[in-house]
């Protein structure tokens, strides 16, 4: 039996991880979970999975969960705040941590998990985007495996298996293109939040859905891929693949290309990460190739969706520039979701922040500097982006 914690259990990846546990025939045991304010969902999870530890980021929500546990005679340790997340991530009893919280909040507990020598099933993009060098060094030092949960990185991970990493020539990251694929800038002037949230292929959370619409999601994945697979940015290519059947590909030095294909179901990469190096029985539908009429591929339009280009630039600059990119994006997306800025202002805000804070890039890459700069950038966006 493998024991695990889930950081961000009530989100999209967290809930799909629960489904993988349900179908594991008792081979996966849930020990700890975290959430923000979703008390009812946590209560349901407590009743079904009986975790020993729960952490709520919101202290009032933690009090409500404690009250439920007391009333129902549940012997569960209920924690709150970042300290709670850190403990759930580093419990002695667990083997692996699923990091599925959204945003910078995932970095510190991931580092705590690595220090505690826990394997990481990584679904939190920001961890490697802002601190890839630091995280990968720490993982190597602690002999910890970083197992990608993103469908694209899982595909690359699987396509590399059994091959010499030194024979890698190019990583090909596929992208659905989001809800506005093919549209020009003039057509995106008055985009509404509800339109940007309508992803054509995947059911995702609000923030990642907007990132997909701007292609920032793919840009963040480019930076992740650089750190996960030690691949130069010039050897990472983004390819728009609207059908989302080919999840990503690897080209080798001899010109051979190996791809991983599968259904549009995040339970597949989640299951693979949790059970690595084994493959388990089906948790999702298989592909019927008789019903697939065609697979198409396109070059991304970085003139219209410049967040992707900005991500490549930030990654190549390195240092703290990806922190600036990510912080500006998180703040701008939040403003858009709250209808305070327009859709096309998101990449413009990011580009402005990369210029304003470029002198900060060469500071030492450590946890304190990352957290401090992230806050500074977000404060700047909030105070300057809204007219």
From TrEMBL:
Q: What's the cofactor?
A: Mg(2+); Mn(2+)
**Molecular function GO labels:** 1-deoxy-D-xylulose-5-phosphate reductoisomerase activity; isomerase activity; manganese ion binding; NADPH binding
Which EC class is this protein assigned?
A: oxidoreductase
- Organism superkingdom: Bacteria
What does it catalyze?
2-C-methyl-D-erythritol 4-phosphate + NADP(+) = 1-deoxy-D-xylulose 5-phosphate + NADPH + H(+)
* A Pfam family recorded for this sequence: DXP_reductoisom
The 1-deoxy-D-xylulose 5-phosphate reductoisomerase N-terminal domain covers 4-132
Binding residue positions for 1-deoxy-D-xylulose 5-phosphate = 125, 151-152, 176, 199, 212, 217-218, 221
Where does the DXP reductoisomerase C-terminal domain start and stop, copy by copy?
261-379
Q: What is this protein called?
A: 1-deoxy-D-xylulose 5-phosphate reductoisomerase
Originating organism: Clostridium saccharoperbutylacetonicum N1-4(HMT)
């Amino acid at each position: 039996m493998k024991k695990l914690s889930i950081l961000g259990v009530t989100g999209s990846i967290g809930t799909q991880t629960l489904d993988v546990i349900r179908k594991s025939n008792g081979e996966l045991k849930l020990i700890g979970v975290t959430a923000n304010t979703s008390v009812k969902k946590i209560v349901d999870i407590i009743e079904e999975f009986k975790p020993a530890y729960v952490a709520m980021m919101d202290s009032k929500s933690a009090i409500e969960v404690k009250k439920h546990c007391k009333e129902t005679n549940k012997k569960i340790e209920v924690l709150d705040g970042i300290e709670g997340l850190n403990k759930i991530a580093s419990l002695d009893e667990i083997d692996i941590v699923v990091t599925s919280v959204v945003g910078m909040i995932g970095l510190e507990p991931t580092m705590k998990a690595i220090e505690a020598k826990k394997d990481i099933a990584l679904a939190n993009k920001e961890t490697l985007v802002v601190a890839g060098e630091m995280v990968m060094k720490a993982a190597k030092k602690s002999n910890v495996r970083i197992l990608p949960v993103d469908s694209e990185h899982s595909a690359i991970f699987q396509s590399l298996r059994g091959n010499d990493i030194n024979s890698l020539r190019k990583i090909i990251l596929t992208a659905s293109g989001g809800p506005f694929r093919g549209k020009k800038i003039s057509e995106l002037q008055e985009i509404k939040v509800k339109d940007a949230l309508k992803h054509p292929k995947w059911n995702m959370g609000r923030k990642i859905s907007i990132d997909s619409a701007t292609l920032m999601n793919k840009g963040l994945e480019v930076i992740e891929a650089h750190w996960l697979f030690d691949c130069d940015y010039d050897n990472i290519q983004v390819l728009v693949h609207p059908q989302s059947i080919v999840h990503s590909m690897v080209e080798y030095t001899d010109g051979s290309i190996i791809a991983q294909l599968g259904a549009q179901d995040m339970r597949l990469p989640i299951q693979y990460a949790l059970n690595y190096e084994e493959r388990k029985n089906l948790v999702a539908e298989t592909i019927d190739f008789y019903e697939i009429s065609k697979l198409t591929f396109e070059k991304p339009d970085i003139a219209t969706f410049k967040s992707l280009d900005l991500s490549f630039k930030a990654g190549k600059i390195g240092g703290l520039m990806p922190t600036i990119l990510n912080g500006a994006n998180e703040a701008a997306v939040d403003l858009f979701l709250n209808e305070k800025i327009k859709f096309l202002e998101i990449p413009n805000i990011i580009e402005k922040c990369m210029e304003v804070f470029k002198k900060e890039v060469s500071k030492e890459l450590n946890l304190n500097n990352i957290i401090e700069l992230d806050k500074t950038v977000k404060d700047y966006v909030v105070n300057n982006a809204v007219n």
